[in-house]
Design a protein that fits this description.
Number of strands: 13
CATH architecture: Beta Barrel
CATH topology: Porin
Shape: globular
Number of helices: 5
Helix content: 10-25%
Largest sheet: 12 strands, antiparallel, barrel
Number of domains: 1
CATH class: Mainly Beta
Order of helices and strands: HEHEEEEHEEHEEEEEHE
Structural class: alpha+beta
Length: 290
């Protein structure tokens, strides 16, 4: 079954690349320059993790995240086909808006229907990559909570370090600290379902490092990947979140098809990791307005 699961995942990835290639062939117009200095960096996020792409003063950014709830690693190929590879399933949807206060300071809000989570955040782009600096550095503070920001509060801080190489490759590392990653709701649930003599992990905070990259395959087609291994604190007894995707840049939009082991779209959700041996199909759509 494990081999069959990997074959299905590989098949989906190949289909995604072929779809993007067809779209690229249909759109022969040159892509808009999302970042004239760092052309390999085209979006404010990789899949779920942040990049260091700045917004212009008073510029806006809008993003839709969509994750199908059907586990592609469960059931036969026939079962998956009958469910149209997850497209018939329920969905976890997120909406995000951010605003460029200045060309170095941006603020935004993200709302996911996963536990009705609302995440607010502010980001300062401290260092831009240039001839004098081989890397770019951004610092982010976030505050999120479930039930429309009324419970399970999770403040967090993160630093994103990026490096672009020419016009083809951008790599990222984002050390992130989340306070109360083990939320009050989760703690009560685990304590209520623990077996006699079983020790409940009562650590509340989590530190993880998000790693990611964006690789240009064609002029307007990219491959993206990311992972968020936890290095200290509460580990949720779950595997680290990971995602892989293919995306198309077209006239100001970034259209991305992705797969991963999670529905996570906020820092607090990423801190809790993914679902063991599960794979979910999803997509992101983003747009910048100047």
């Amino acid at each position: 079954m494990r081999t069959h699961r990997y074959v299905r995942i590989l098949g989906l990835a190949i289909a995604s690349v072929l779809t993007a290639a067809v779209l690229a062939a249909q759109d022969s117009a040159p892509a808009p320059s999302a970042a004239s200095i760092l052309p390999a960096q085209i979006d404010a996020t990789i899949i779920n993790l942040p990049t260091t792409l700045s917004l212009k003063t008073h510029g806006s950014y809008f993003r839709v995240t969509h994750r199908f709830a059907r586990d592609l690693g469960r059931g036969s190929f026939s079962d998956l086909a009958q469910d149209l590879f997850g497209l018939d399933s329920a969905a976890i949807i997120g909406l995000e808006y951010r605003f460029g206060v200045t060309d170095r300071l941006q603020a935004g809000v993200h709302r996911s229907n996963f536990d009705k989570t609302i995440a607010t955040f502010a980001r300062w782009d401290a260092v831009a990559q240039s001839e004098s600096s081989p890397i770019a550095v951004s610092a982010t503070g976030s505050f999120e909570g479930g039930n429309n920001l009324r419970q399970d509060y999770q403040p967090g801080v993160a630093v994103t370090v990026s490096r672009t190489q020419g016009t083809r490759l951008a790599v990222y590392a984002t050390p992130t600290y989340i306070h109360h990653a083990h939320t009050d709701t989760l703690l009560a649930l685990h304590e209520g379902h623990s077996l006699p003599g079983q020790t409940v992990d009562t650590r509340r905070d989590t530190f993880y490092i998000g790693f990611g990259s964006r690789l240009r395959l064609l002029e307007t087609v990219f491959i993206v990947l990311e992972g968020s291994p936890r290095v200290a604190g509460y580990d949720a007894d779950q595997p680290p979140a990971w995602n892989v995707g293919v995306e198309k840049l077209t006239h100001g939009h970034v259209l991305q098809l992705n797969i991963g082991n999670n529905f996570d779209t906020t820092p607090g959700q990423l801190a809790r990791g993914g679902v063991p041996e599960a794979v979910f199909l999803g997509f992101n759509i983003s747009r910048k307005f100047y």
